[in-house]
Amino acid sequence: MSNHSYSFAGNVLKLVTGNVFAQALGVLAAPFIARLFTPEAFGIAALFLSITSIINVVVCLRYEVSIMLPKTDEEAANLLGVSLAFVLITTGISILGIFFAWDIIADLLMSQNLRKYLWLIPVSVFVNGTFVALNYWNSRTKHFGRLSIARIISSVATQTTKLGTGIAGFVGAGVLIGADILGQIVSTLILGWKIWRDDGQLFKDSIHRKKMVANLKLYKKFPLYGIFPSLLDNLTLAMPVLFFTKFFGSTVTGYYSFGMRIIQLPVTLVGVSISQVFHQKIASTQAVTGEISFYVEQVFQRLVFMTIPILLVMLSAPLWFKILFGPQWNVAGQYVMILAPGVALRFTVSPISVVFGVRNRQELAAIWKVISLISTAILLGVSLPFADAKYSLYFLVINDLFIYSLYLYLIFRVSRASIKRAIFSVALR
Question: What would the 3-class secondary structure string for 75-109 be?
């Protein structure tokens, strides 16, 4: 095995190892948590998460992505400073928005049950934005091991909080929301402390206001082309939750969100780790040779092989959902079986989508995200006359298969990789 392959595999292994422990705790706790909390509570928590995920897109104005690109750490440090400055600004704006439009927001979100948890939105935005910025710096410096440690401890804090408070009789949506935020806080503090311990002096010596302004201008394409498309992207992901809440209620939303949360564990476990290491690898390769097609084809092939067993597990979800989580979650298992093909394709494609940023072709990703939003809205709208959540899920699968096939085509085109060669290599193995 080449040094490049060994290094890539080793870095993925570090991240996956931490994620395995972190997600294993979530898997072990899930059957108990599912029996403590109602589908409605999960639905409200999912709605909160959808809202914050939309805001989190703009929290750093997408400058966090550019941290990976500069040739010098000094320049990258100033981009980290830019990102954290926008975290503070965005958090302040969210505080004002919640304070002056509390009731309006609750009405627009179509869930009065969420009203009492709105004050937690700025907290989540600040913590998540800080973590995202630090995470990109951490990926740049290749300290993947400490990220794994942060995730493990974060998972322990999150799951023990949910279990402990649930057993004590506190089983509202606020517990699920608060426990997730607590986990975010713990991981951010751990990662921040370790980064400051190792790189604090570099930050003190390198970060200056004039340099931050200069880098803000130099990498202006990231907010210019990145914010609106990313908003569209997260709005597209949040749309089913908003749709099910409005037309079918929080319980159906709970079934959908719980099912998606369980089957997306492989994406969190492996896909995100591969994406981070892949991003660092092609960013450094792009800076030296500009030839990244080999890595795109190689990682795509690995993802295809990983997807096959995941798809088989998802197709049998009605059986094991009922056994693991109780008969009240049988509907969620049926939802997972319906959604399986679309989720499998998304898992195969999403980790290599960082190609657009590395190639500085964000405009193509932006066009795809516009198409994705429009397509999702149209197909969900078409499903409404059937007045059945399952029919809406079938239309979502059709939508995912269409938009992620298009995404894969664009990724290979931008990276100058050959999709025929990649698929042919998969078929020969």
Answer: HHHHHHHHHHHHHHHHHHHHHHHHHHCHHHHHHHC
Q: Look at residues 274, 279, 269 and name the one whose alpha carbon lies nearest to residue 140.
A: 279
> What residues does each domain of the chain span?
1-219, 226-429
Q: Is 73 exposed, middle or buried (0-12, 13-18, 19+ CB in 10 A)?
A: middle
Residue 4: partners with Cβ closer than 8 Å, 6 or more residues away: 281
CB contact burial 189-200 (16+ within 10 A = b; e otherwise): bbbbebbeeebe
Task: Considering only residues 305 and 394, tell me which one the structure prediction assigns the higher pLDDT.
Answer: 394
Structure tokens that stand for 215 in this block:
């880098």
Q: What local confidence, expressed as pLDDT, does residue 16 receive?
A: 62
Distances in whole angstroms, Cα of residue 84 to Cα of each of 140, 391, 414: 16, 43, 30
Q: Which of 108-112, 134-138, 364-368 has the lowest mean pLDDT?
A: 108-112
- Cβ neighbours of residue 6 closer than 8 Å, sequence gap 6 or more: none
For the cut 80, the answer to whether the pLDDT of residue 87 exceeds it is yes
Q: Tokens at residue 305, please? A: 């092989």
Please choose, from the candidates 228, 257, 346, the residue with its C-alpha nearest in 3D space to the C-alpha of residue 50.
257
H or E stretch covering 347? helix 330-349
| 137 touches 195 (CB < 8 A) | yes
The DSSP string of 235-246 is HHHHHHHHHHHH
- Higher per-residue pLDDT: 403 or 421: 403
Q: pLDDT tens, 362-375?
A: 778 878 888 999 99
